[in-house]
Write a structure and sequence with these properties.
478 residues; alpha+beta; C8orf32 fold; 2 domains; 6-stranded antiparallel beta sheet; two-stranded antiparallel ribbon; 18 helices; binds zinc ion
Length: 478
Amino acid sequence: MKFNWEGDRILQDTAIEKKRYIIGEKKSITTDIREWISFEDNIIMKDILKELKENHKLPSTKNRGDFDKRAMIVWQFVAEHVTYVYDTTKYKKGDFWLYPPETYQIKKGDCEDGSFLLASLLIASGISPFCVRVVLGMAHDEAGKSSGGHCWPVYKNELGKWCILESTLDAAPSRMPEADPLTQKGQDFRYEPMYCFNGHHLWEIFPGDVTTAKGKTIGKYFSARKNRVNMRKTKLPAGGWLSHMTGDWEPGHLEITTDTLKLEKFKFHQNAIDVVADAAQDPDFYDWYAPAAHAQTDNDAQGRTNQTKEAAIDAYQARISDLRGRLVSEAKKDARKGLFYLGYLLHSIQDLATHKGITNAQHSYISKMVGTGSDPDHQEENRKKAREYSEKFIETFSKKHPAAYKSMKAYEGRTLPWDRLFRAEKGEILGKDWDLSPGAFIEYSGLAKKFGKIKDQYPIDQTVWDADKVFETLITSL
Ligand SMILES: [Zn+2]
């Protein structure tokens, strides 16, 4: 679908409701939507431009490429300086919109706040308002289901192509993604534009034939747009939906992996980190039934330990060396795939610190029967160890496989707002789909009781590995 990002039909009524309140007054006030991107002359915005010129190489010349460069610099600045927040009820009532200088000063905001600041800065930096719009519309998931209302700036680049500069990212990608391909069906985040505006006009955008399209007011859109897309939800928090079932919201694979790659000595690009951190959660979904993926020993359906310690450790080591082999060969060809393997592998490294070889039955038993205080996944000491292992692993890997490491380290992103792999891509790489299901999780929970009855025959302390020793062997054979 091709959209007319300039806007199809001008709407004369630019009044919008319920976006601002006056302190002390209960009622909201009406505002003109165009007010949100009219700050060229604002002193705070001028200060930002000064900072961009002095410290971020913002060009003031008008040579070829200078305008696209301005757009990229402004985009990167907003991505870095404005933290995306979804739940803003602490200081906002409903969907309260912030003016650009306000967003800049509190350094956080949702999709509208970031978009207004970004668009206003683009114009203030000398880009013509003819080439800038803020778009209001919807976002959809892979299956075409609506994820809620969304707002994003678009910029017409020097080749005349409209590009989406997503304002909620933590870092801008290396290039500007064209807008039209991002509206195509089947992607895990699809944009659907409905309205656009700048400081001068508000327009409707129609799919297909404009002459037959029926117009509506912007007010109708806002009342229909009950929920807004939560951009954080598109990244699984520690354990993804598993967290909903287990109530576990503590730092997990995503957070530990992110923190490790952000360390001064590694300092991967944010877009690379997103790929690795996302992949670090995947073995729980694609390899739920593979004990070796989680540094565990196998058990049968009755909860009986099914594997000797030696065999379990061998299987674990074999898995790591298989993944390492794929990681090394992929990373040199395709950095993004390499990053995926790195995350996938780090999961098993981190699980060594928490599981230390115990079976799923034993794990279920300690976390459910004795109390969550004993759940190895919840112990700070284990999490600290997982961080140590992750750091040491990457450090050693970088020395033993410098070419693969260098290729991943140089990765700065593609021309899509998100770099993490789509489910279909992961399926293709791994040659399988999710094996975790709510049923599989219930089965796991049921193992607690079963194991409780036979626990004396399969003592946990006899299953536990010497994790440090296993890790040392693993590191030397890297
Ligand atoms: Zn695991």
